[in-house]
Amino acid sequence: MALPMVLFFERHWDTIPKKVLKKLLTALAELGYDTLCFERPQNLTFTENIQSMQTGIDFVREQIVQAKSFLVKAGVKLDKELWELPFVELCNILQEHVSSKRYMELAELIKNLPGHEILLEIMNEANVHEMLVLGTDINEDHYYSIVSQSYDTRITALKDSAKKREMTMGMNLIGDYQQRKGVAYLGGALHSNAIIEILKKGISEDQILAYLPHSPENLMPDENDFEGALKDFVPMDRRFLLRTEADVDHFIARLLRDIEVSNIHTVSHHPQSNSHATLLAAKFKHPFEVYLRQSCKADARLEVKDEVNAEAIAAECKQYNIPTRFHLFKNKKYLIVEDINTKEVATNIRKMSAV
Questions:
Q1: Are residues 148 and 57 in the same domain?
Q2: CATH code of the domain in which 341 resides
Q3: How would you classify residue 334: left for phi > 0, otherwise alpha for psi between -120 and 50, otherwise beta?
Q4: Distance (Å, rounded) from C-alpha 106 to C-alpha 262?
Q5: What is the pTM of this model?
Q6: Tens digits of residue pLDDT in 11-31
């Protein structure tokens, strides 16, 4: 595993993180990211997740239609969609004209709708890119028993279950990182510190890239989310305020640079300094250079030139469960044979070379 884990943290109602991820998806897939993880139940299949998301979206849209009919009867005229209203204003309108008891829950559902629709698009597009779409959270029954509660009881239930959920998400992400080529994750900002600390137990810190891109809006117009609920959960260096499309593009460019920098080999070695690189060179009749990453994992690197059938080399390595990837650096393309100084990969290289 060589691609760093990319973590997007979010305020769930804020569409900016999802818009960034959607815009970035093709680039991530081209870099080799093959797994997209979400704060969703871990035991749902891709199809079940899609169906669950679509059912939830359809339900909220039905609720909006009903709410609008009440507002029309009450003579309330709006010049924007309900989800575009500030949260407090939306709550007040719903409480006065739609439901005096369920207005808070309904306002949350409506406010979250645009983000959920983008999330559904991301999941479907990831599937088109042949990325594995996985939930990392607790199982479905427990998950929905929490999120389906009324606002007041749900807040308490979320706090009570936070440690279990964060441990579940963190350990699932470590497992995905160890088994897949590249993992990106989208989840709630309140979990960011806890999940990152768990990840550090199984992943080198330099391979964890964490961000919270966000809009200038706040849920409560008279409060700053980052001076209030999120103050102790999201350090300043993880926050990125994105006001315009140009801001989004600059952020994406910065993130892609971060991925490249984290993959730069910091120390080079002569090929003969690693016997497994020597075996690769003898097997494929091309010189492999040995490089160390910041995590002290060693890779064998082969420049892809006209005379190098890199695809065939990668295919043969795959037959022996030897991880490879292609990497573009300073306008040169390389085939990377990853982690050759780990026991499993070294053993498999020896097996392949003996044939």
A1: yes
A2: 3.10.28
A3: beta
A4: 43
A5: 0.76
A6: 999 999 999 999 999 999 999
